[in-house]
Automatic annotation (TrEMBL):
Protein name: MOSC domain-containing protein
InterPro entries named among the record's database cross-references: MoCF_Sase_C, MOCOS_middle, Pyrv_Knase-like_insert_dom_sf
SUPFAM superfamilies in alphabetical order: MOSC N-terminal domain-like, PK beta-barrel domain-like
Segments forming domain MOSC: 167-337
A UniProt-annotated Pfam family: MOSC
Stretches of the chain forming a coiled coil according to its record: none
């Protein structure tokens, strides 16, 4: 009997970088990633540099809730239809709920922000959000929102984010506190993906992981771990363990409208200490990095033959880009249309 094609087993969106994700049945995918994914991040008040679980494990306990209308299958994530009162609700142990409006303010304070290699400008979410996160984390900080760009699929992104098209212009920032020389648009590393947009992710708009790979990893651990340790956007069901290492282009057949959305796997995802943080307790441990080091290091996989810097890195999941916007849903069929060539890993154009 022929093996069935793999499918999308789960979709996860992480509205605030390093906080808990939201599981959705379907979501708008654009070049910049899934609707609302890493749309916000917490930054240090003094220098605007991002704060993640690497520094503050307590972010793992910050829960984010979105309006039910956004979580309905095939809702297209059109925030603009929710009305001006639609909020994202943020809760954490010992803290009162924080409401963040989903509609962007027409006038706002711009703030210089840094995430990894990129320094740009973001939209400050105001004093209440800043006070909430400062009290929770115990350091002065601000909550900022990604501004976006006028790239090829910005119209789809604007519809998904409820953002008027004219506000999508890169660098067109109104308000006080911004640096006019900085842009609101962040691009991927051109070594692996040329001229793709990403928000406040660690580097690429989408992260894909294979549920069978997790099962294989868990078979080698004393205590199995949930997928939330790896924070993927797309979880693949029905594939062989680690089959994703052989995929370059995967076509998603969208059940909502029949269109095909091609996903390009551009770089294996090297993992950090966040994977060792229990997302239910914020407690730090040793796994899965110790075991991944024995089965998924660049040296073990042979990937260091062409990329020496990957010798001691450990990998789980793949970074993904796309040029095609569409609504992707749990259950959508995946077709592998092009294989991965590891000794090349040419940048996606």
């Amino acid at each position: 009997m022929a093996r069935m094609s793999p499918t999308i087993g789960a979709i996860n969106v992480y509205p605030i970088k390093s906080c808990r994700g939201v599981s959705v049945q379907s979501a708008m995918l654009t070049e910049a990633g899934f609707m609302l994914d890493r749309e916000w991040m917490v930054v240090r008040e003094d220098n605007g540099r991002f704060i993640s679980q690497r520094e503050k494990e307590l972010l793992a306990l910050v829960d984010v809730a979105l309006p039910p209308e956004l979580l309905a299958p095939a809702a297209y994530g059109a925030i603009s239809v929710l009305g001006p009162g639609a909020d994202m609700t943020v809760v954490a142990p010992g803290m009162e709920p924080l409401q963040i409006p989903l509609a962007r303010k027409p006038d706002f304070d711009a703030r210089k922000v840094t995430v990894w290699e990129w320094t740009g400008v973001g939209m400050d979410e105001g004093a209440d959000a800043a006070s909430w996160f400062s009290r929770y984390l115990g350091i002065p900080c601000r909550l900022v929102r990604y501004l976006g760009s006028n790239r090829a699929n910005a119209e789809a992104a604007a519809a998904a984010a409820g953002l008027p098209q004219q506000q999508q212009q890169a660098g067109a920032v109104r308000g006080s506190g911004g640096d006019g020389s900085l842009e609101g648009t962040r691009m991927t590393d051109p070594e692996f993906a040329v001229n793709y947009e990403t928000r406040f992710t660690d580097g690429y708009p989408v992260l894909l992981a294979n549920q069978a790979a997790l099962a294989d990893l868990n078979s080698k651990l004393v205590e199995p771990l949930p997928m939330n340790r790896f924070r993927p956007n797309i979880e693949v069901a029905g594939a062989d363990p680690w089959a994703e290492d052989g995929w370059r282009v995967v076509a998603v057949t969208c059940s909502v409208d029949g269109r095909t959305v091609p996903l390009t796997l551009v770089k294996p995802c090297s993992r950090c200490k966040v994977t060792t943080i229990n997302q239910a307790t914020a407690k730090l441990g040793d796994e899965p990095l110790e075991t991944l080091g024995t089965i998924r290091s660049g040296k073990v996989l042979g990937w260091n033959q062409t990329r020496k810097s990957w010798t001691h890195a450990v990998f789980f999941g793949w970074n993904v880009v796309t040029r095609t916007a569409g609504v992707v849903s749990v259950g959508d069929r995946l077709t592998i249309t092009s294989p991965q060539v590891h000794d090349a890993l040419l940048p996606a154009q």
